[in-house]
Every structure is written in C-alpha cells, then in structure tokens.
Write a structure and sequence with these properties.
Number of domains: 2
Shape: elongated
Low-confidence stretches: 1-9, 196-240
Largest sheet: 6 strands, mixed
Structural class: mainly beta
Order of helices and strands: EEEHEEHEEEEEHEEEEHEE
Number of helices: 4
Distance between the termini: 39 Å
Length: 348
C-alpha cells in the first residue's frame, strides 16, 4: 500500500512507521568522558571540540564497561537531543553506538556526522531571530507495536531556522545539522496540519475532541420560564481606555526566481530588491545567507525561498526589510494524473 508520507524519510535514519510519528535523533562522533559520580553520567567531547552534558542508557553503559578500551576513542553515537530550560546548548542522551566494518557503510556514517532528524509540532517561531520551537512527544506505539510509557514527559526543542507563517500548530519533518551547540534546519516538509489545541486536549484526555465540556443537564425549551428563576445579570460595558497588547510585526516575502540585480555593498554583503506588486522591498544579507539562494538555483530545478524580517525604514518605492533571514525549500513538481481509459460501448 502506498502512503504519500513514506517519502518524508530522513536521509540516514529509518523511515517513520506512520505519518505523525514524533522523533528527535541524531548522529555525532566524539569521546565519552564518564563522571566520577556515575559511569552513565558524563560529558561527550565531539570531534570539533564541543562539550555536551550527556547521559547513557543502562544497556549501553553495561556494554561499554565490559570494553573500557573503547572509552578513549572517537566513536559514532546515536543520540537524542534536548534543550533544557535556563541552560544554553544541547543536552544529549546516548542510546546506541554505530559502527561497521563495511567500507561503504563506514563512509555513510562519516558523511552523516552531525545530522539530526526532527519530527514534531511547531509550537512557536520567531522569524526575525530565525528560531523555532518544536514539541516532541512520546509516540503512542513503537515499531514492534508495543505501547510506550505514557508517563514520559514531552519536551521542546529549539531549532535555528523558520517556516511559513502558518506553520505554528502543524506537524513538520525537519532535516537538521549541528552547528556548535545549536541545531540548524537544512530542509523541511509539512506532514500534517495538526491543530495544536486538539493535540493538547487529546494528550490531557480531559475534554472531548471539540474541546467543550460535556453537558449534564438539558437546557429548558424556548418559551418556558420557571417562576422566580434568577435572570442572567447584564454585563457591564467597560468605558475606560483600552490597553493594547504588546507585539511585534513580522513580514515574509517569497520568491521563486534568482534575483536579477544583485549589488555588493559594505563588508561584502549582498543586496537586491523584490517587487511585490505594490511595493519594492530592499533586502541586504550576509554572503553566507545569500549562498542559500545560489545553492538552490544550482541544485533544485524548482524552489521557493521565504525571506522573513521586520519592516525597516521607508524608501521612495517601498521599504527596507530589517534583519532578514532566508529559508529555501525545494518545490517538487506534481505528477501528471493518468488519463482515464476510453469508454468502450458494449455490442448490442
């Protein structure tokens, strides 16, 4: 049986068992340094010199304690990342070692170091800062069909990058890489437009799907009024000054063509204009950020770029997009529908 979401698989880890399967897993290479307090609690020193607080699964800890010579070497680790509250950087749970004597598999491991597959619900994003928050929950069932521990808590994972403005509340599949202590989004695919409120109410199990309490009493029929029944009090209207809620306006400009007029300005930054039809938006980005457009033009037959930022100073024909950030997505052409077979009239 064919499912469209089966194409939304990571480039290294197994494809999901079902569409909205949560996941946060990555591959890193480094040396594990156990603490004096306990062997399963320590630090993972990666091959690029970063240090991560880490814990190790009991099964893996028992395996390594039988082979202490492996502790002092650089190993491939399958890890679960977390971002802890009030702490900078990632926290890693070490769940397995990855190794192979096959040369092709070893090359594949090396090529995918610092790759992370993240699947979850977008709960917040700040396009101006280029940050988004993904909620990861424990899946209801495992690959073997067993139920997971429902007492395990969900957690949020911070990712550098941004998605379309309507992404909050939706289930997304992200390909990410580790850059120092941060996870950076490289590619993204929408899996399901999952309502965030509905997901929360289902997990809590306290309300129905429409998020309304069950009625226990029937309402009186129209036209019947009980004697001496209390009448609803009239709601007093507020006549004072209205206090506005503080907020921040963010803009998103989408393009699907490589800019024609590119100007190199101070410090080598790239500047170009986008014509939105009624206004001209001036965009200035670092060469590293502009390179995303160059790579899309070179590697993708069709693509779309979302450029998000805040409204800056006005110009003669529009405005400057302040603090812009660029995210590029490959646009896959739709497969043509098969023509219906001709109808053949049966002989009379």
């Amino acid at each position: 049986m064919f499912f469209p979401w089966m194409f939304l698989m990571s480039r290294f880890f197994q494809s999901p068992d079902y569409a909205a399967q949560y996941r946060a897993i990555g591959l890193v290479r480094g040396q594990y340094l156990p603490s004096l307090e306990a062997f399963e609690k320590g630090v993972l020193l990666t091959d690029d010199g970063e240090e991560f607080a880490a814990v190790m699964f009991d099964r893996l800890a028992q395996q390594l304690q039988k082979h202490p010579e492996r502790i002092n070497t650089q190993l491939f680790w399958s890890v679960w990342p977390k971002t802890l509250q009030d702490e900078q950087g990632l926290f890693l749970e070490l769940n397995a070692l990855r190794s192979s004597r096959d040369e092709q598999q070893q090359t594949r491991l090396t090529r995918n170091i610092n790759y992370f597959s993240i699947r979850g619900v977008v709960v917040a994003q700040d396009a101006g800062a280029g940050k988004l928050i993904i909620r990861i929950e424990r899946n209801r069932t495992t690959r073997s069909g067993k139920k997971q521990d429902e007492h395990l808590e969900q957690f949020n994972l911070e990712i550098s990058g941004f998605l379309p403005g309507e992404a909050v509340g939706q289930f997304w599949d992200l390909d990410c890489c580790r850059d120092g202590q941060n996870l950076v989004m490289e590619d993204a695919h929408l899996v399901e437009a999952v309502p965030l409120r509905l997901e929360t109410s289902i997990k809590a199990g306290t309300q129905r799907r429409d998020d309304s309490p069950k009625r226990t009493k029937t309402a009186p029929k129209p036209g019947t009024k009980k004697a001496n029944a209390p009448q609803p009090a009239k709601t007093a209207q507020f006549t004072g000054d209205i206090m506005p809620t503080p907020g921040k306006m963010e803009l998103s400009v989408k393009i699907s063509e490589f800019p024609a007029d590119i100007r190199t300005v101070e410090n080598g930054w790239k500047q170009f204009d986008v014509d939105t039809g009624d206004q001209l938006v001036t965009i200035t980005v670092k060469p590293k950020v502009f390179k995303k457009l160059e790579q899309a033009q070179e590697n993708y037959p069709q693509w779309v770029a979302a450029i998000a930022g805040q409204m800056g100073e006005k110009t003669d024909q529009g405005f400057v997009l302040k603090e812009p950030n660029i995210q590029v997505f490959e646009r896959k052409p739709k497969e043509p529908k098969e023509a219906a077979p001709p109808v053949v009239n049966a002989p009379v």
